[in-house]
């Protein structure tokens, strides 16, 4: 396993509160790995998949003389869809990515009710929909089909955590590589197209 | 033709500068009509197509005590892709919408070089890609396939305006309805799928 270019240190010691910032950086790194993977797919003509911009509620904008518009009051809004979408050989691809430091389960509070609803809508439209889950303690990454996330979520409306065992049973492990780092489209191609052609 | 719920007045009189604001509202209305159309498609299970959030470059965020994070300095960024994307019966749908008050042509400065490049990438991946063009003076709307936009753009790298005659020749007129207001998927179904199945 090669961690290039975002080497993430192992997580075997106890951390003090002042070290929390390291966790934030580690949280970024999975997103960076995915963005880097999507860049690879784009530049190599494999797929066109982008992260959507963060939804922002803009309250006030200043127009300084001779300068470009400056937003001076705005707030983050909760995303109503998933973070990533695009096209791969004509297929609509839609996914969300989550990272956790927990070792045995993923807290379902990572997913909002309208994100689950969005995934249901995408599946009804025959889109390819899934989540990429990263367990940073083990540096393990899984692709879990949206239908399995939805089934688990529906058991108790997302109150309990999803055990790693459930993810291993229903999902697919993605081995990290140098280029691309998280080759999730290999899994999509092998397991999620289900004989579809376009 | 029913303009509900965004009635747009006819444009047969000369406007004074103080009336410019009306134009801004009219400018919004085409976007609103598309958003309303997408809402219709979503709630009726026809398609899942969303407008992407506006890309913002965040420079400074305050964290007021007991309040949610407040963005206090940010700037608008140029979009690197198109505004709308989603899935319709498994097909990846990707488009940009533009409105003009001009009567005989659409200024090509409405499209950025990387948006044109994005459309080329989407077409290579067999995505369904087009632009919706609205001539507010006539209340006429056209769907122009991305390939025809790209061909025109390549003639002079987007310097000159695209004549309405070119749009009429290569595009498809979309009649406004009550529900949905801009039924562009009818055109997609009839003319853009080209025998594709999924």
Could you walk me through the main structural features you see in this protein, from its secondary elements to its overall organization?
Two copies of one chain form a homodimer. By secondary structure, chain A is of the alpha+beta class. Chain A has one domain: Trna Endonuclease, Chain: A, domain 1, CATH 3.40.1350.10. The first copy, chain A, is built from five helices and ten strands, in the order H-E-E-E-E-E-E-H-E-E-H-E-H-E-H. In chain A, the strands form three sheets. A six-stranded mixed sheet of chain A has the order 1-4-5-7-8-10. A two-stranded antiparallel ribbon of chain A has the order 2-3. The longest helix of chain A has 24 residues. The radius of gyration of chain A is 18 Å and the shape is globular. Chain A starts with 19 loop residues before the first helix and ends in a 6-residue tail after the last helix. In chain A, 34% of the residues are buried.
List keywords for this structure.
six-stranded mixed β-sheet; Trna Endonuclease, Chain: A, domain 1; two-stranded antiparallel sheet; homodimer; 198 residues; alpha+beta; globular; disordered N terminus
Total domains of chain A = 1
Q: What pattern of helices and strands is seen along the backbone of chain A? A: HEEEEEEHEEHEHEH
Report the uncertain regions of chain A. Answer: 1-28
Residues in β-strands, percent of chain A: 25-35%
Mean pLDDT of chain A: 86
What is the straight-line distance between the termini of chain A? 34 Å
CATH architecture of chain A: 3-Layer(aba) Sandwich
């Amino acid at each position: 396993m090669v961690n290039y270019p975002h080497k993430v240190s192992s997580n075997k010691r106890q951390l003090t509160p002042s070290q929390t910032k390291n966790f934030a950086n580690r949280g970024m790194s999975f997103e960076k790995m995915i963005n880097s993977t999507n860049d690879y797919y784009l530049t190599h003509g494999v797929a066109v998949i982008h992260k959507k911009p963060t939804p922002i509620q803009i309250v006030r904008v200043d127009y300084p003389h001779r300068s470009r518009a400056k937003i001076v009051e705005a707030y983050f809004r909760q995303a109503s869809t998933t973070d990533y979408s695009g096209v791969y050989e004509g297929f609509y691809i839609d996914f969300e990515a989550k990272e956790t430091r927990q070792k045995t389960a993923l807290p379902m509070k990572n997913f909002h009710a309208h994100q689950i609803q969005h995934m249901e809508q995408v599946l009804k439209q025959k889109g390819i929909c899934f989540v990429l889950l990263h367990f940073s303690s083990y540096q393990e990454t899984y692709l879990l089909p949206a239908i399995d996330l939805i089934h688990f979520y529906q058991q108790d409306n997302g109150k309990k955590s999803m055990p790693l065992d459930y993810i291993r049973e229903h999902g697919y492990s993605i081995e990290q590589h140098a280029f691309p780092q998280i080759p999730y489209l290999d899994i999509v191609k092998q397991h999620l197209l289900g004989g579809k052609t376009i």
